[in-house]
Write a structure and sequence with these properties.
Elements (H helix, E strand, L loop, with lengths): L10 E3 L5 E3 L3 H17 L2 E8 L6 E6 L15 E6 L4 E9 L5 E10 L6 H44 L1
Antiparallel strand pairs: 1-2, 3-4, 3-7, 5-6, 6-7
Helix pairs in contact: 1-2
Length: 163
């Protein structure tokens, strides 16, 4: 059964507070492009992609630290809330759900604004998120195909050697 770890490479503990993970170069580049777009389009002051793991591995971070309680990540729905009333800073938490219904993680960003996201902005965010999901799924599928091809070649070689 697929899990978040099957989409990202090894997660390792650097120290008690810091985890690291490695991503495929194409996926890492896509994350950086999505981050740049979110920071510019939504005038976000900070952005983070967090993987859905018990340790909450942060796959990407830009700007200041975003402190999110685990309870805020429990829902599988888009969430936008005011986190500071004087400056009107809004936090957007958008779950990343794969076609298999696996919750991969969340896109989280904060921005100073006088209003919630417009429908057009939500549509743009949804498109960026779909792009990321599609790339994860394609990468996973190509890895699975490569692995199955390796298994077939090994099977043929074993049959050849034992014949």
């Amino acid at each position: 059964m697929p899990n978040v770890e099957s989409y990202i490479e090894g997660v390792s503990l650097i120290d008690e507070q810091q985890l690291t993970t490695s991503l495929d170069n194409d996926i890492q580049t896509n994350i950086e492009n999505i981050a740049e777009l979110i920071l510019n389009i939504f005038d976000a002051s900070s952005f983070s992609i967090v993987a859905n793991q018990p340790s909450g591995v942060e796959l990407y971070k830009s700007g200041s630290e975003i402190a999110v309680a685990k309870e805020q990540l429990a829902d599988d729905i888009f969430n936008e809330s005011i986190i500071e009333h004087d400056l009107k800073i809004f936090r957007v938490i958008s779950p990343i759900i794969l076609p298999s219904n696996l919750k991969f993680g969340w896109l989280i960003f904060e921005r100073a604004s006088d209003s919630l996201l417009t429908e057009k902005e939500k549509s743009i965010l949804n498109s960026l998120q779909k792009n990321f999901v599609n790339q994860l799924v394609q990468r996973k599928n190509s890895f699975s195909m490569s692995f199955s091809q390796i298994v077939k070649v090994c099977s043929v070689l074993i049959n050849f050697i034992t014949a």
